[in-house]
């Protein structure tokens, strides 16, 4: 069965786009962060605070493998860092896997994350200038892994519906 994996930096729209896509193509959507929260009974913030990032990356890797190996067709939304740790990027090219990098510019990501960073432990404490620099550097470091996706969709200046349409074209 087929897996459609959505990936990209925090704030690129993975969750919103996956939810909409899921309704249209009637393939269930699972959010990796949510699965981690359910498994640990902790929020992502609490995991970072109480157990540290290394623990988070370990369980993220384990649950990602579990989801990829489930027998049914699924849309899987990754966390922004998932492809960049524990060789997770190697799973983006597996059999029956379509992985889509939702590519957003630093500007787009900054505008979205600046008003919505509280629940994101990596950026919650940064001021505007720090946030912009952080995104620029982090995105540069991570792009190598994001570009391992089998497909890329630009999300800058597009509505959710337009992006979903682009994905539907890829799936057609
Ligand atoms: C992270 C992104 C978050 C979450 C965690 C770490 C990252 O997911 O997995 O806070 O390393 O970029 P979202 O991209 O859904 O915010």
Commentary on this structure:
Strands 2-3-1-4-5 form a 5-stranded parallel β-sheet. The radius of gyration is 15 Å and the shape is globular. It has 172 residues and is an alpha/beta fold. 49% of the residues lie in helices and 13% in strands. Helix 2 crosses helix 4. The protein has a single domain, classed as P-loop containing nucleotide triphosphate hydrolases (Rossmann fold). The structure holds shikimate-3-phosphate. The site of shikimate-3-phosphate (S3P) has 10 residues, from loops.
Which helices and strands appear, and what pairs or packs with what?
Layout: E1 3-7, H1 14-25, E2 29-31, H2 32-40, H3 44-50, H4 53-69, E3 74-77, E4 97-103, H5 106-114, H6 128-146, E5 151-154, H7 160-171
Parallel strand pairs: 1-3, 1-4, 2-3, 4-5
Helix pairs in contact: 1-7, 2-4, 5-6
